[in-house]
Amino acid sequence: MDAVVVTGGAGYVGSHIVRRLVEAGREVFIVDDLSEGHRRSIPEGATLVEGDFGDAALLDSLLSGEKVAWVIHMAASALVGESVADPGPYYANNVSKSLVLLDAVRRHGLRGIVFSSSAAVYGEPTDVPIVEEQSCAPTNPYGETKLVFERALAWHHRAYGIRYAALRYFNAAGAHPSGEIGEDHDPETHLIPLLLRAVVKGGPAVPIFGEDYPTTDGTCVRDYVHVVDLAEAHVSALAALETSKLDAGAFNLGNGEGFSVRDVVEAVARVTGTPPPVERAPRRPGDPAILVASSARAAKRIGFRPAFRRLEEIVRTAWEWHRTHPDGYGERPR
Known about the structure:
Blueprint: E1 3-7, H1 12-23, E2 28-32, E3 46-50, H2 56-65, E4 68-73, H3 80-85, H4 88-107, E5 112-118, H5 141-160, E6 163-169, E7 171-173, H6 191-201, E8 206-209, E9 221-222, E10 224-226, H7 227-242, E11 248-253, E12 259-260, H8 261-272, E13 278-281, E14 290-291, H9 296-302, H10 311-324
Helix pairs in contact: 1-7, 2-4, 4-5, 6-8, 6-10, 8-10
């Protein structure tokens, strides 16, 4: 099998993808500057190339010297609120540097890219569940930069024949069932790890942003998809591209079921045996009431079948990680 480069492969989702690729017998090269990733998340058998994925000289050295045919592009700036407050770095990292990577793929004759995109490309949904045919109108620079690179991939496919799969995933959650790798962000913005950290450390209270939405309990509803299912989807998309079952396309990756913020709080209480401390907070501007994916296209084209469908299953794997790693990997990214 051809070797694969995974940008951002020491990050949360990236490390799970790398682990799955190594298990499948792939030769894997991780390009990561460890600004947000963790050296301890890298499995034995993968090679870390420490550096910037937008460094053309580094990419030339790696891609000319190894039998690499594919890239899984995970590296990105990914905080919605930060992107609104300071959009410049998001365009630099998610667009400019990604175009350097894409040009290297073209120059070295690689076969294609699996791209970590996002449900943020849709903006405010017009219909739920969200299908790929829905118009894309991002409401923040993060989503906009993901969409810009998706469009660059489509034009490069048309001009140069570079194959690609853009995987638009919803709320990544959970941890590897082994308990060896999991979610460790600083700052942490995701609901499930915030609640679990509050249980482990006895606080602080986690804000619930809005309780007056048109949902069953008044809180936002989101689609949580397990990180192992996401990893499997990337590997499946790569296989589909490799065997010519797929040439190009964008695909939603979700659980297909929505869970409210209150649902998540109650699931954490059941799994841990301790109600997490929470507090009321006003709505955040731009938060849609419901975001739930239809993953029918991904099921049909790349065989996406989530194994972790129940919210408690997702929370339980995350709890095992946070319970045994109260300080995460014990290293802070540079």
